């Protein structure tokens, strides 16, 4: 009895000669169905071979990552630090497969950057889905949102699926991209595969899981030397009193409800419990104490000092919130890039930074990931979370190598507050051999 494989609205339909549908599977299962039914008539994809060659030179570890991907059936996630050249591995994958490919990215900035880069490297016109465009071509770049919305419509058009910042794919909504696209070849790229909620494990079956990883220690010869310098600052007396008062309200609530905050799930449980008046009061107290710790007045003075002793370095300043970014922008006449900054304005500021018209930018999380930031030698964290992922992404922004370059990452941290503990926690995954010092 002959069988036939077809694609229908994100599903793979296996039909026998008597037209009975013996099996209906999700799109990602196409890969295993082809292996299970090698003699089936395959109507899922239109066979279309391309000639995608490039002249980019891969570093040895990029070659190793590529070969591991091939050995794994051209499926899986490659994990490399920011600035280690993950894009080059994707370019090689697209070339090796040389069949229709979809590159999925989290932001409009990356959408544009990938499109320009692929067109330059392969000398072809690249399609775009998202950002007001719906232009499908053999090689197409899409945002996460657009790839999700178009999944059932174009899920059998691209035999290779490349996902940049693939850890986002584990989110409940975006998992449908992995689920509905039938692409047998899949490459995920990220600097931070593990998620606090452990949902990256959901990608193993649908994407192939983590197959290759290298960290800062193993890539020293390809990244700039760097030093991490922590600058402790003291709260003013009125700030300290207000911090301790709010902190006491919060901790009293935790003790009375026998709660311990050992990770994101515990904190989520606290948030869910804050529906009562007492809970809302505790939540507001936590927010207020955190705001005081992250943004005491003295941090502006510390920032001014750091900028003064590094005045010739191209500098990226990171904050946890938009308000602080704009305060710094006004105080030091530095362009700010936040979620409120229009796309054209972001591009203009980044180009000004690239060509040296300005030598500093301040950003509230926007530059943490999903943006190709020009080379910088100095990073300053004015405020941030305890996330190791965020810290490594910010550090990676200053690690692109250059002759004689020694990168520095300053952390301005409020002593005697939870921010100090967050500073210790977020350094997980950063090599102990890096220069880590503390200034008084």
Structural topology:
Layout: E1 3-8, E2 11-16, E3 21-26, H1 30-36, E4 41-42, H2 60-71, E5 75-79, H3 86-97, E6 101-105, H4 108-122, E7 127-130, E8 133-135, E9 139-143, H5 144-149, H6 151-154, E10 160-164, H7 175-180, E11 185-190, H8 203-207, E12 210-213, E13 225-233, H9 237-256, H10 264-272, H11 277-294, H12 298-309, E14 315-319, H13 322-332, E15 336-337, H14 343-355, E16 360-364, E17 378-381, H15 388-396, E18 406-414, H16 418-426, E19 435-438
Parallel strand pairs: 1-4, 5-11, 5-12, 6-9, 6-10, 7-9, 10-11, 13-18, 13-19, 14-16, 14-17, 15-16, 17-18
Antiparallel strand pairs: 1-2, 2-3, 7-8
Helix pairs in contact: 2-3, 9-11
Question: What can be said about this structure in brief?
Answer:
By secondary structure, the chain is an alpha/beta fold. It is built from 16 helices and 19 strands. The strands form 3 sheets. An 8-stranded mixed beta sheet has the order 8-7-9-6-10-11-5-12. The protein has a 7-stranded parallel beta sheet with strand order 15-16-14-17-18-13-19, sandwiched between helices. Strands 3-2-1-4 form a 4-stranded mixed beta sheet, with no helix packed on it.
Task: Explain the overall architecture.
- It is a single chain.
- The protein has 440 residues and is of the alpha/beta class.
- It has four domains: 40 residues, no CATH class; 155 residues, P-loop containing nucleotide triphosphate hydrolases (Rossmann fold, 3-Layer(aba) Sandwich); 157 residues, P-loop containing nucleotide triphosphate hydrolases (Rossmann fold); 58 residues, no CATH class.
- It contains 16 helices and 19 strands.
- The strands form three sheets. Strands 8-7-9-6-10-11-5-12 form an eight-stranded mixed β-sheet. Strands 15-16-14-17-18-13-19 form a seven-stranded parallel β-sheet, with helices on both faces. Strands 3-2-1-4 form a four-stranded mixed β-sheet, with no helix packed on it.
- Helix 2 packs across helix 3 and helix 9 packs antiparallel against helix 11.
- The protein is globular, with a radius of gyration of 24 Å.
- The mean pLDDT is 87.
């Amino acid at each position: 009895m002959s069988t036939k494989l077809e694609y229908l609205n994100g599903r793979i339909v296996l039909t026998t000669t008597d037209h009975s549908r013996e099996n209906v599977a999700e799109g990602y299962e196409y890969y295993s169905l082809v292996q299970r039914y090698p003699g089936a008539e395959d109507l899922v994809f239109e066979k279309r071979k391309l000639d995608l060659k490039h002249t980019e030179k891969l570093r040895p570890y990029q070659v190793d990552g590529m070969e591991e991907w091939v050995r794994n059936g051209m499926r899986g996630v490659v994990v490399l630090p920011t600035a280690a050249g993950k894009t080059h591995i994707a370019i090689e994958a697209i070339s090796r497969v040389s069949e229709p490919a979809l590159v999925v990215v989290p932001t409009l900035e990356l959408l544009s950057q990938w499109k320009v880069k692929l067109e330059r490297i392969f000398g072809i016109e690249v399609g775009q889905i998202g950002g007001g465009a719906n232009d499908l071509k053999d090689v197409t770049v899409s945002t996460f949102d657009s790839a999700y919305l178009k999944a059932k419509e174009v899920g059998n058009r691209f035999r290779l699926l490349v996902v940049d910042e693939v850890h986002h794919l584990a989110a409940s909504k975006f998992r449908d991209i992995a689920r509905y696209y039938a692409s047998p070849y899949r490459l995920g790229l990220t600097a931070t595969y593990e998620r606090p909620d452990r949902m990256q494990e959901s990608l193993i079956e649908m994407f192939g899981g983590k197959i290759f990883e290298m960290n800062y220690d193993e890539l020293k010869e390809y990244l700039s030397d760097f030093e991490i310098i922590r600058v402790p600052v003291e709260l003013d007396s009125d700030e300290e009193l207000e911090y301790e008062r709010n902190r006491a309200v919060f901790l009293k609530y935790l003790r009375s409800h026998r709660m311990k905050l050992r990770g994101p799930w515990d904190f989520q449980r606290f948030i869910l419990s804050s529906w009562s008046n007492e809970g809302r009061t505790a939540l507001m107290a936590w927010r207020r104490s955190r705001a005081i710790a992250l943004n005491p007045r003295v941090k502006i003075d510390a920032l001014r000092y750091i900028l003064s002793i590094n005045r010739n370095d191209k500098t990226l300043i990171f904050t946890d919130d938009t308000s602080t970014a704009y305060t710094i922008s006004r105080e030091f006449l530095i362009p700010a890039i936040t979620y409120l900054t229009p796309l054209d304005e972001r591009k203009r500021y980044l180009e000004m930074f690239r060509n040296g018209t300005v030598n500093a930018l301040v950003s509230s999380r926007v530059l943490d990931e999903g943006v190709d930031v020009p080379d910088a030698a100095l990073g300053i964290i004015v405020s941030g979370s305890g996330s190791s992922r965020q810290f490594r992404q910010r550090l990676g922004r200053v690690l692109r190598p250059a002759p004689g370059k020694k990168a520095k990452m300053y952390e301005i941290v409020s002593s005697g507050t939870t921010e100090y503990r967050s500073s210790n926690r977020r350094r997980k995954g950063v090599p102990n051999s890096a220069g880590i010092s503390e200034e008084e």
